[in-house]
Amino acid sequence: GAGVSQTPSNKVTEKGKYVELRCDPISGHTALYWYRQSLGQGPEFLIYFQGTGAADDSGLPNDRFFAVRPEGSVSTLKIQRTERGDSAVYLCASSLIPGNEQFFGPGTRLTVL
Amino acid sequence: SQQGEEDPQALSIQEGENATMNCSYKTSINNLQWYRQNSGRGLVHLILIRSNEREKHSGRLRVTLDTSKKSSSLLITASRAADTASYFCGAGNMLTFGGGTRLMVKP
Predict the structure, then answer these.
(1) Which residue in B33, B52, B53 sits closest to B44, CA to CA?
(2) Distance to chain B for A83, nearest Cα, Å
(3) In the predicted model, what is the mean pLDDT of chain A?
């Protein structure tokens, strides 16, 4: 599998619960991006990693959202105290270096009941 | 605020016709990327065009970029039913997208 992979593909949770979404970027890609997409809208930028560090987290909507990439490869997006408004498809993308083509994974569809 | 805005929001054409979609953005960028999306899941990368390029081709796709007008266009020639999808432009490094153009190609 040479593409970006994301797990789980679907996640249903209850309001107030904690969730973790995982992204495996393309091997060797140094830049990793998280987006979320609501129905009928374009993806919305959340956070961008260059290596292990968050280079830009200006898109995170509030402090319930957090992401890590401890070894510069796999990344986990963490959402605390989920709200119904967090329901969306969470997309991950990676690029070889910043400014190159970004390749997207299939997304995780999060539903908060 | 969203940087890339696609126009039109929806486009319906017959197979074999050309489809043109436009994108406008607000601030200076180093590159712009076009994507296709089916069924609301992952985006498929089509073309990246850099700020020092004016036109780029890939198969039946032609992308232009006008940095003075902060706009880009995607032309799909000889469209096929399989081209039916939503198309998005993403501007800048942390891609900012508009609402997309929903293209329907009728067989």
Answers:
(1) B33
(2) 21
(3) 95
